[in-house]
Records
---
Amino acid sequence: MNLYSKAIFLAVCLLLLSGCWNSKELDDLGIVVAVGIDKTEDDQFLLVTQVINPSEIATDAPTTRPPVSIYESTGDSLFEAFRNMTEKSPRKMYLSQLRLLVIGRGLAEEGILPSLDAFYRDHEFRTAFFVTIAKDTGVKDLLKVLTPYEKIPANKLMHSMEAVQRSLGSSKGVVIDELIGQILSKGQSPVLPGLLIDGDSDIGTAIENIEKIDAPTQLRIDNLAVMEEDRLIGWLTPEESKGLNYITGDMKSTTVSYPCGDEGLISVEVLRTDKSSKAKFEDGDPTISIELELEGNVGELDCPIDLTKAESIETINGEVEKRVKQKMEAAIKAAQEDFGSDIFGFGNLIHRKNPAYWKTVEKSWNSKFKELKIDIQVKAQIRRKGNSTQPITKEE
Amino acid sequence: MKGNKTNHITPPDAQPLHSSLDDNVNDLRTTLGNSSDFVTRLFSIHKTSAAILYMDGLVDKNTVQNFILESLMLEIPAKRPITHHLYESIKKANLPIGELSEVEDKHDLLKKLLSGDTILLLDKETKALSISTKGWSDRGVQEATSESVIRGPKEAFTETIRTNTALLRRKIKDPDLRVEAKTIGRKTCTDVAMVYLEGTAEKEVIEQVNERLDQIDIDAVLESGYIEEFIQDAQYSPFPTVYNSEKPDAIAGGILEGRVAILIDGTPNVLLVPALFVNFMQSSEDYYQRADIGTLVRLLRLFCFSVALFMPSLYIAFTTFHQEMIPPPLLISLASQREGVPFPAFVEALMMELTFEVLREAGIRLPKPVGSAVSIVGALVLGQSAVQAGLVSPAMVIVVAITAISSFVFPAYNMAISIRILRFPMMILAATFGLFGIILGMIAIVFHLSSLKSFGKPYMAPLAPMIGKDQKDVLIRLPHWGLLSRPSFFTKSDQKRVDSTSKER
């Protein structure tokens, strides 16, 4: 055997001996779409995974088998719990397609940072999944609910969350990168969306739940949870949640309604918001000024206003400005007085503006935040008034 | 350059002709083994015996009848010259035939005889007249079968080299068009012609072609493939470095770019050198359709090149290594199709690709009336039953189908063959190393392509090395009034193609 053929022989060996070690066929994967984590009573990690059953989802002939399955395991660490899961599941858990991480309330109150490490460190996770908190329900119960219309419950939750964020603004999706960044940042505390079960969780887990037109048990996106560093400390109301989104600039579109006339109501559709916030220093004390410009349409009108007149548009502008400002102030009030947690990231603004000052307050920022002066300016612009200038009312 | 050069074929010792007619005729009969198609017609011209020799089937009988036999037997004037002047006078005055030559050697005579000439032998004369009467039934100029176009000339080369040179002459009526003849093949004595434009084609290339052709010593040349394998640069590369086409317009286009065409008797496939990678991506129709669609089609072909080469390997890599790169809804759909398929994706792909190759080969070989059987078996058995039986997943059938269709897009069949070959190593690389393997394979292919040369020209020119001025006719095609100069990677002289003022604005 000459040198040449020896070299080829070795090259072929390399190819045959080393290859394929991490190759896995699609039908060997348990595709995990949602993971729930919590603490058990004996202080172990509880891990719940929602695995899809592909042949049930992409099929022409559906059977009565559920589209997803749930596996549960416990362990001293999350990583251990993942491996313990193989005792029950037929396939290795494949986590790259994870959409949703649900954190149990108990764990969230205790502090989530240690358990996030496994999700951030492992190369298999993509860092684009949403982190949520199960409000008033166990994570397992929550992940067990079968959802109508959207076959995969995790997808339903993700899509609902995106829809809420896009057109209602009372909640928002938080991905793990963002969450960890905010936990570690001294100048901002994170918020997380909550998840709720509407109805009986035992009915929700059975296939009958999705055989009804009006599914008795449904999953719902709730308002935002306020965290202090990595611990859950309370919940915002829907109005406060909207206010928070206005302040952080995450508001895409929402509605603002206010009563007008005797019993009528006027609803304005907010189409676009443009926020700019600045930190200012007056006599060594920081102030935050927030300027919010928003544009909207008249969406619904049920009171005698003549929209053809410029004054009525001005009135609506003024009312909208007032309502929005109220929401923002409510959010600030809740954060400052009830929770004492800077969920708006004002600390970061000050840090950027005056790093030297920030050094002195960094340690005790949350107590300083309580006394922070915040100045809000809202400018509303109604662009379109819809197809008619008058409400549809009976002539009296 | 020496015309009519016949290396290695001349026998070591020349054999002069006998002076007796009978000896000559008998000698030739023995040499040809009394072949049944060897015709000898003995007659006399004013008491001098003479003989007409020809191979039946290779000559045009009308010519032999009307212009040779008739004029020799009936029209020679009664007042005859003396015998030893007879030969000269016949040569000068009595043969109304265009092409006439003298032979004095038996081997030359045999060669002429066997290529369709009629030999006139006179008694007591050691010279013979060879009269060109070539005329056999050939296919005639017909429509091209392997390269069809929507717009553009439909004619194709034939098996007869003279017809083929004529087809080229008719396209390029320039006095600089050179047709250099050669004979290659000890037994077949195949006529080979180099056709190029003097002054436009580079001297070095012409010399190279001459040199490489003269070096060939082979007993038989039956097709241009024989010559191609002798003269191509990269003997062990899957990529072709010699272009071939059966369309006179494509070859004429090449000649006008300063390239050298090699015509071989007996085949309609004409070779064209130097041939670069981009030439195989171009079709002559690109120049006949509008420039914009010509450009788009060229880009489409490049896209199809990558699809045909990488599609199955990418599918294997994504589904067995990089599932996180597949969008979730697609992943779920693919995963559900994979449920119950007993083979790994690689084996599945290999199986389907092999089956397709078998089908394709069978489709070519089968006689036309049976041909449709293959498509039925192919469409039904593979497309549907294999999926229904759970042997392969539907997605794999789609992948194989797209790959197959993409590989049919190339105007040059020999480039499609290289892709067919390379697809399989790419699939093995994908199955062993995933995307990493595909990238390795791709790097290797790019390295290899960049190292190739065709008759001294870098194979990837004008992309590597990048020649900005020649980009007008590579991936894009400018309108004809914008193709101002010939591609500079083929020729440096006689650059001008279009006068820049020739288009009215």
---
Amino acid sequence: MAYIEFNDVVKRFGDNTVLDHIDFGIQQGDLVTLLGPSGCGKSTLLRCLSGLETVTEGQIVLDGRDVTNVPASKRNIGMVFQQYSLFPNMTVEQNVAFGLKMKKVDPVTIEKKVAEAIAMVELTGKEKAYPASLSGGQQQRAALARSIVTEPAVLLLDEPLSAIDAKLRKALQSRIREIHQELGLTTIFVTHDQDEAMVMSDVIQLFHSGRIEQAGSPVEVYTHPASEFAASFIGSYNQLTGAQFSAISGSPVPAGHVVAVRPETIGIDRTRPASTDDGYVVPGTVVNSTPRGNVLRYTVRVGQTNLLVDVLFRSFHMFDPGETVYLTLLKHDCLVIPENARSAA
Amino acid sequence: MSSKTKAVKAPVEGKKTPLAAKIFLGVVALYLLVPFLTTLVYSLFIEWTDVLPSGFTLRNYAELFTNSTFWLSIGRTLILCLVSVAITIVLLLLAMYVVVAVNRKLGRFMQFVCMIPYALQGVILSIGIISLYTGTGTILSNRMFMLFGAYTILVLPYIYQGIRNALNAIDANMLIQAAEMLGCGRFRAYVQVVLPNIVSGILVSSLLAESIVFGDFVLANNIAGTNYQNIQVFLQANMARSSGLSSAIVVIIFLVVAAVTAIVLKLQRSSQNR
């Protein structure tokens, strides 16, 4: 039995079905990411769990207790919002202490716990600061301290890093992960950023149009996308129709399926490698190359199809536009997946 | 070379602009103050038939300050301001709680209701209230209570706008949700988290409302008349007696409103600093 259970949850706003029969469980202590594009229903599910939204149908169970109709203030769930939502008239210290005061914790314990929480998010020295005088990252850390200090049953993070610059975001991702490990808090993280989901999660629940498209560990979801949508959303898969793949490889593809190939699994060479039974070697022409940090991404024209190929950015391994190259696609890296189909997790 | 010269000059020109703006604002302020200054001079001299006035006197002020009716009318006006503005603020804060935390769709209805007084002429409002409540035998048939009620309606749109803007500026609904997630009930969150953050907005709108009530003559004269004489009705009653005395009353009204404004602005600043 899972720690959190969503049993056939449906949420409608008027005629618009935002959550379409969501049914899955979350184990205690896991850090689960709800990943998906904007408007897919991931934040709505989070708000249904928090109690800030009611569900239209279905049931939500938390630690064996049906909380479907329990008010948000009685669920003992902590939440960090995208907009921080710190109370502007209170200092960092007062913000963090607010939840403990609501629980009528004695003042000595409040003082001790507040100091611990502030230290945990590395805001020591900012106790007396008002939110307006803090940077975005500091505000988000204060919001995090405010949510964890009450020792909630579940911590919900609703795109908490989306308004923060890339460098700070990476640091905060690590800090959130560390805090999760230190406290062992069951945590649900909502994001539309697949890289962030990969870094943060024990389990990814990939959302699409109000339903769960695929669930699994980051490695599973990345290496074995269950559908065309999953392949397009996770990573930069080359997606080839049956006709395109057959034209390149000479192998048939079952009707209603596409072939997905990750750019980093494709080998690229100047000279034709020896043919192998494990894969396909095809000639192509380099169209362009794009540096992407430590990776160089080539677009290679093969017949009528462009393929993306990622290689480590090394000076001795560079190809010029117009150059003829040979691509090696290993068979086990060519994933045949249903076309525009949904597969329940 | 020329481009270099321009680049150097640009910031200097930029510095000159605020000075020009200050001069412009000063001239406008002076222009707006001319009626007040003229009234002040008129109240301090016996005659003003030539270019310069003659016969400096404080007689008008001495007469006013020793007149208990004057002080009573000032007191009544202040009470009218405070009570009617306070009633409106309390009612609107409760109504806006429902809009912010319970049913946001009611926001449009609230806006419509609160904007109605804009369209009501003072004469129509006062006659309507008198014909509706006179002779009902309830507490509302008392002229003083009618006047409080009328001013409560009159200031509704101004205070509503101020409170609504302040609530929108802090995203009150989100703050209530954040407090809820920390175990706080909605109404308590509204009182403990939202209200302290909109004090500034409430003060500014109440300032505007206060100046409107202070300046009203029509409602006070039609509804209460001499039964509950406010400063404007007192002014009207004394206009025929002496123009110097009337000028002194106007100067004092201006100074009282300025003093109330200064106090409210100070409160607003200290609220913002916190």
